[in-house]
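All the exercises in this workshop are built on plain-text protein records. Instead of coordinates, the fold is spelled out as a row of discrete tokens. Once this layout is familiar, the rest of the handout is easier to follow. The record below serves as our worked example for the rest of this section.
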Amino acid sequence: MTARTTRVASLAAGLLLLAACDVPPPPPPVRPPPSAPGPTAATCPDGFEISGDQVEAASGLRAFGITLRNCGDRPYHVDGFPVITMLDEYGRPIGITVGTGSEPVSSPDVWDRPPEPIDVAPGETVRARVLWRNTVTDGESITGAHLTVAPAKGAAAQLVTPNGGIDVGTTHRLAVNAWTKVDR
């Protein structure tokens, strides 16, 4: 073998090794919120869009408001709690516990209302809140990058990215409040 053949063989072997490396899977099939306003099939395929507020942090407790806006042309019905999944930076689900109501994470407060059926008229909104604590004791600290939020079990989920991530620490828990009407 010549020196050139050896180099080409080494390069080919290196490329084969790189190709065999573990590559993160593509993100799960969720729809990002529509970017353009207006109730068209292209911008509002699910009849709603979900967005998030800034994360509020105080003494380790984090609160993240989520809003569902009816961007369709007929009422959208919600009844209960949003379905939340935490994802890593590659869009892979992270196994955590998601409880309903504030109590799994915090003391009950004004957001802890029982779920009620709500018909959201076109252009109207409803809100919910996601809570977590950044508590770190023994064990593995977890930080997620994104959430998928569905209005209810079985409904289409949309991707929401809280500014600063979701630093659940070693609690591995989120809590979510029921959908509620937005006060005008």
Remarks:
- The helical segments are 3-20.
- The first strand starts at residue 48 and ends at 58.
- The longest helix spans residues 3-20.
- The chain is about 10% helix and 35% strand.
